[in-house]
Amino acid sequence: MIKFFQTFAVVCLMAFTAFAQEPVSAAKGVTYGEKIDAKNLIPVNGLSAKMGNNDILAAKIYGTVTDVCTKKGCWMKLDNGDGTTTMVTFKDYKFFMPKDIVGKKVALDGVSKQVLTSVAEQKHYLEDAGKSKEEIAKVTKPKKEIKYEAKGVLVL
């Protein structure tokens, strides 16, 4: 009887995994994660000034998506308007972004943090984005940057 339940549990797990769905397409008004509204937003390129000397800041931001993890949608980048981007991850990896979110304007609610990103982590993100081996090899130093952890994302 125990073997039956073990087998049944494995079959159920495989079925749930096989039928797991991609995130809903990034249409205007779609929310991922917690529901948020588009009130009191600051532009993503204003995070640095808003943070000042603080290492952490809870803030609602908006920006345009320039890149998304091509494997699973587990991160995205927002355009800072100066050739740089802000990396966005999702709280506890409870939700993911669809691949068609690139180019869309989004509002986010969450926490920004000033961090030092290791070479290994930078290379990992470049691999997730499908970048070339040559581009990945160019990363040789840790990078000080602002990262954002979103608990909710709203497509504007």
Automatic annotation (TrEMBL):
Keywords per UniProt: Signal
A Pfam family annotated for this UniProt entry: DUF4920
InterPro entries listed in its UniProt record: DUF4920
Signal peptide from the UniProt entry: 1-20
Name of protein: DUF4920 domain-containing protein
Species of origin: Pedobacter segetis
Lineage: Bacteria, Pseudomonadati, Bacteroidota, Sphingobacteriia, Sphingobacteriales
